[in-house]
Write a structure and sequence with these properties.
The structure is a single chain. The protein has about 210 residues and is mainly alpha-helical.
Length: about 210
């Protein structure tokens, strides 16, 4: 799992670290820190589209403020370094990868890749599939308090997963980000590594947990 992004997309490991850091900060009530760390992952902004929307929905103003400030600063630096031509290049890339006969499109395990490859005759299917993925997660947040209680951790993980499924350009090797949400559900099983090992295999001898 780590070998592929190491060869094709070296920044996936960094994105995982950013998600872990923001997750831990939010869970500890450090919204400003969580917002800053989340903004540091905007080098892959297309995979972080839902989390800022959830922050807005839950009225986490401090997190949104720090996120927006860092995002604006990073955007200004990027624009100064590359220039406005980057927008033309980006949209040109999107148009090329969206062609139904594009090999690149077939490498996308997302709503865009599925809709454009399997159902190219229905141009509206991609936004519909994206909404079907994102809407239930966002709606579920309406009833989930942002205080680290209940299924908060699972909800955060599901939000990350949904964010991977809706971008216009996410490829199979970028799914290595799933290392983060997969590891979240079992986090509270135990603080002891030995007890966590017991949970991985039924033949591990009984331990005091």
């Amino acid at each position: 799992l780590w070998a592929t992004p190491g060869v094709l997309d070296q920044d996936i490991a960094l994105l995982i670290l950013v998600l872990v850091g923001s997750f831990l900060a939010f869970r500890r009530g450090k919204d400003a820190t969580g917002g800053v760390l989340l903004a540091c992952g905007l080098f892959r902004f297309h995979q972080l589209l839902i989390l800022p929307a959830v922050l807005l929905l839950k009225r986490r103003w401090r997190a949104l403020g720090s996120f927006s400030a860092v995002a604006a600063g990073l955007g200004a630096i990027s624009l100064a370094m590359v220039g406005p031509s980057i927008f033309h290049g980006y949209f040109h890339t999107l148009s090329v990868t969206s062609r139904n006969d594009s090999f690149v499109l077939r490498m996308m395990p997302t709503a865009h890749g599925y809709g454009g490859t399997v159902l190219p005759q229905w141009p509206w299917i991609v936004p519909v599939l994206s909404c079907l993925v994102a809407a239930p997660v966002v709606i579920a947040w309406m009833w989930q308090p942002w205080d680290g209680t209940g299924p908060w951790e699972m909800m955060f993980a599901l939000t990350v997963v949904a964010g991977l499924a809706i971008p216009l350009h996410s490829f199979f090797y970028e799914m290595a980000v799933l290392v983060f949400p997969i590891s979240v559900p079992g986090k509270r099983a135990s603080t002891s590594p030995a007890c966590q090992l017991r949970g991985l295999h039924p033949f591990v001898p009984a331990l005091r947990c």
